[in-house]
Amino acid sequence: MKLKPAEILLHPLRLRILATLGKDGPLTTAEIGKALHDEPISSLYRHLHILREAGYIRVTTTRVIRGQEEKTYALTHPALHLSDEALAQASSDDLLRFVATLMADLLGAFSDRLAQQPPPELRDIAFLEAIGYLSDEEYARLIRLRNRVIKWITTNPPTPERRRRRVAFFALPEPESPSS
Predict the structure, then answer these.
(1) Distance from first CA to last CA of the chain, Å, rounded?
(2) What is the reported pTM?
(3) For residue 45, what pLDDT is reported?
(4) Percent of the chain scored above 90 by pLDDT?
């Protein structure tokens, strides 16, 4: 049975694997297993295969250790998103679960960061919600700008001046009003 793209991302273990690779990758299966120590290694292999077949992760290196092939995995794209094709195939329930999963991941990351010592300074946390009016053309321009910003963020190499930062965008069109 072929899984829809949204179904691939909605599985909790696959999302944890992607989050681990996004945070610490590239990693070998053993390193992923150590990070996700509560998961059986056979499950990791199965879900890594699904993620690789779907194009979310790739093998960066392969080496033989004691007669066994060891693969190192990395995210194919540093930004987690559903493609236009995946969005077109997704049902309303798929989209709701995808958003809920992303929000849960963000909430988990935020909770983990608040629990660390020292806690983050308020100036390092940004919240923004804006509601405004955009034509379809203006909205398409916004999405193109967002894509450029995400590419810029995810291709920045680490330097002593840079810290890892999580940036999330969520855009939701409001329903058309009866007067429009």
Answers:
(1) 43
(2) 0.57
(3) 94
(4) 26
Task: Give the separation between CA 63 and CA 83, rounded to whole angstroms.
Answer: 32
Rg (CA), the chain: 19
Own/partner pairs, 22-29, CB within 8 angstroms, 24+ separation: 22/75, 22/78, 22/80, 23/164, 25/73, 25/74, 25/75, 26/60, 26/61, 26/72, 26/73, 26/74, 27/72, 27/73, 27/74, 28/70, 28/71, 28/72, 28/73, 29/70, 29/71, 29/73
Q: Is the pLDDT of residue 145 over 90?
A: yes
| Residue 20 half-sphere exposure toward CB, CA atoms < 13 A | 21
144 three-class SS: helix
